């Protein structure tokens, strides 16, 4: 009995030890199974690469054996139906896991299928069967793993299970993203991008070692931590410094007002300054890859390079760079890097819908009051009717709130202008949402229709015209962009927004502003475009514009005067008023054409335009089509 008691007391502590040991063993087993899952994922990735290579070799072989016919204009007619049938029949076999698809390999013509026995020696390279049972054993293993009570293992197993049953979709989706590097320049670009991407990722991951920190946040002990940090910096420098391609020197234009090149900001260690410099050079190269400058001075996208950057995932590393915490007040070098990063993202999605959609997934990163972020969001939505048509009310409210709380900056209005019109199409849903939010925010609407405020605005037109192009917070420029936004919201005949805008900017205020002798062409252009879309080219007839003296007053006191100024201007183009010429040629001709083409214009009197005024304009400034339109209206 004594022995039994002792044995019983001993067995009381044993289950706890066994339970602890069992838990450790279970965790070890589960981790081992996770490693097996990683191996299976690697095998599936290899199979995916193999299948894509097979498809490419099939296309290449069919193209070589049956070249497409080239017309007299040098246009290829593509693959014939017979070629497509051959491609389809051969592509089916790469998904067959139950047979040896030995004949699908690079360089093996379709005519040699009957000789497949000659290639049986390379069975390990052509057999896509994972388990010798057509994938059945593989599925049984995955189903068994999904029944465990270990969430990471279950999640990874389900991912593999879904992937197994969507093999064709996976291949097609990845095949669309294949980019062939045909020219030597493409190969060199790939090598440089790969090297820069690895270097940038390494620097971003170790940013806490080199990004400047103010002294208030440093550790008081100057000994150990700083030495360790310096050592880590040295290690980082040795690991991530590019070795193959020497970094090209920046041009004088790139170095202009560069805080990094001028050494502005707080003092840094040489290793820290070198890291700032390396990132600057990487971002400059990336920007030059995305766009090129045309003869007219505008930026044009380099679509092949944009796609290459997208396929390599460079934008992801740049987004991580934007999330690095730093001292925005003192660290001027980092401010420059952040600006270059935003410039890259803007160029990255210039005219590229796929890149725009990619950055749109990370839109929450840009929903802050920063003007750089606002400019980047504009680039994401620019001329993309799909994204503009689905913009959420939350995003619009964010920019309205930014204007109310962080000042009347033009860039906030630029975004609202971007989403109401895309690819020449006016998006009524966006127009209604923007108009609703703008009309309800008193701090957003700034008009100068009272006597005192009107005189203030006239003084601004006299004094601030030369600096409004580069001053983002100029009240003059803000008012011009606000009127342009209202015009965009009414463009395309939107009755609901037209009615709201009538109360915001009446006809009397428009006439008083445009007819003033000190009114500048930029203001006239904004007001006349608003007049055209809100009062003339409307969904509902506006009898006031046709039955009153307003339009004729504008003709006599403003339109004819400006046309005469352009027609009688000296021939020296170096001193020409291009803003006035643009206003006359575009805005005036548009509103005159729209007014006289309107079915309601018959209700008005006819104004006789003197031949001595419009004939010089037609001869020197208008295209033949515009001249014909003007003569028809006249």
Oligomerization: single chain
* Largest sheet composition: 2 strands, antiparallel
Shape: elongated
Overall mean confidence score, pLDDT: 78
Rg, Å, rounded:
34 Å
Please count the helical segments.
30
Strand content: under 5%
How many individual β-strands?
Answer: 4
Q: Kindly report how far apart the N and C termini lie.
A: 124 Å
Strand line-up in the sheet with most strands: 1-2
The unreliable regions are 1-11, 99-126, 217-250
- Helical proportion, percent range: 55-70%
Pairing-aware structural class of the strands and helices? mainly alpha
Please give a quick description of this structure.
One of its GO terms (cellular component) is membrane. With 634 residues, this protein is mostly helical.
């Amino acid at each position: 009995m004594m022995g039994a008691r002792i044995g019983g007391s001993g067995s009381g502590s044993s289950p706890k030890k066994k339970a602890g040991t069992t838990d450790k063993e279970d965790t070890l087993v589960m981790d081992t199974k996770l490693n097996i899952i990683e191996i299976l994922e690697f095998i599936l990735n290899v199979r995916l690469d193999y299948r894509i290579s097979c498809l490419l070799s099939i296309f290449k072989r069919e193209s070589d054996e049956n070249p497409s016919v080239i017309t007299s204009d040098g246009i290829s007619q593509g693959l014939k139906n017979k070629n497509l049938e051959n491609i389809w029949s051969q592509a089916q076999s790469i998904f067959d896991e139950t047979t040896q698809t030995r004949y699908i390999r690079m360089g093996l013509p379709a005519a040699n299928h009957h000789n497949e026995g000659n290639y049986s020696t390379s069975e390990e390279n052509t057999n896509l069967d994972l388990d010798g049972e057509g994938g059945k054993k593989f599925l049984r293993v995955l189903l068994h793993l999904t029944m465990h009570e270990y969430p990471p293992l279950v999640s990874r197993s389900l991912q593999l299970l879904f992937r197994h049953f969507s093999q064709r979709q996976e291949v097609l989706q990845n095949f669309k993203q294949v980019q062939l590097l045909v020219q030597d320049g493409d190969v060199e670009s790939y090598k440089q991008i790969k090297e820069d991407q690895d270097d940038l990722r390494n620097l971003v991951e170790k940013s806490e070692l080199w990004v400047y920190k103010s002294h208030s946040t440093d550790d008081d002990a100057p000994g150990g931590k700083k030495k360790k940090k310096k050592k880590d910096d040295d290690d980082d420098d040795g690991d991530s410094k590019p070795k193959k391609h020497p970094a090209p020197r920046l041009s004088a234009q790139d170095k202009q007002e560069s805080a990094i090149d001028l050494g502005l900001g707080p003092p840094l260690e040489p290793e820290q300054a070198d890291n700032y410099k390396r990132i600057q050079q990487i971002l400059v190269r990336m920007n030059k890859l995305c766009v090129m400058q045309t003869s007219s001075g505008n930026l044009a996208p380099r679509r092949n390079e944009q796609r290459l950057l997208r396929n390599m995932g460079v934008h992801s590393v740049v987004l991580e760079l934007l999330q690095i915490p730093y001292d925005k007040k003192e660290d001027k070098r980092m401010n420059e890097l952040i600006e270059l990063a935003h410039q890259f993202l803007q160029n990255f999605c210039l005219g590229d819908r796929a890149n725009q959609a990619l950055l749109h997934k990370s839109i929450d990163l840009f929903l802050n009051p920063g003007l750089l972020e606002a400019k980047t969001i504009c680039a994401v939505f620019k001329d993309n009717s799909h994204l503009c048509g689905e913009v959420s009310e939350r995003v619009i409210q964010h920019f309205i709130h930014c204007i109310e709380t962080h000042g009347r900056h033009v860039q906030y209005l630029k975004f609202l202008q971007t989403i109401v019109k895309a690819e020449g199409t006016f998006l009524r849903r966006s127009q209604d949402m923007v108009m609703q939010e703008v009309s309800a925010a008193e701090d957003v609407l700034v008009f100068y229709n009272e006597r005192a405020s009107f005189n203030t605005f006239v003084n601004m037109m006299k004094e601030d015209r030369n600096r409004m192009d580069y001053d983002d917070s100029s009240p003059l420029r803000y008012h011009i962009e606000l009127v342009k936004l209202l015009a965009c919201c009414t463009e395309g005949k939107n009755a609901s927004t037209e009615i709201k805008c009538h109360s915001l900017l009446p006809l009397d205020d428009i006439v008083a502003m445009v007819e003033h002798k000190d009114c500048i062409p930029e203001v006239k252009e904004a007001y006349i475009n608003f007049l055209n879309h809100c009062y003339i080219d409307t969904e509902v007839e506006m009898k006031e514009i046709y039955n009153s003296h307003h339009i004729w007053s504008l003709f006599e006191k403003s339109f004819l005067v400006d046309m005469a100024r352009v027609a009688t201007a000296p021939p020296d183009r170096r001193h020409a008023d291009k803003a006035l010429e643009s206003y006359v040629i575009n805005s005036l001709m548009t509103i005159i054409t729209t007014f006289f083409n309107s079915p309601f214009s018959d209700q008005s009197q006819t104004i006789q335009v003197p031949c001595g005024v419009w004939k010089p304009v037609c001869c020197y400034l208008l295209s033949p089509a515009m001249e014909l339109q003007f003569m028809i209206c006249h």
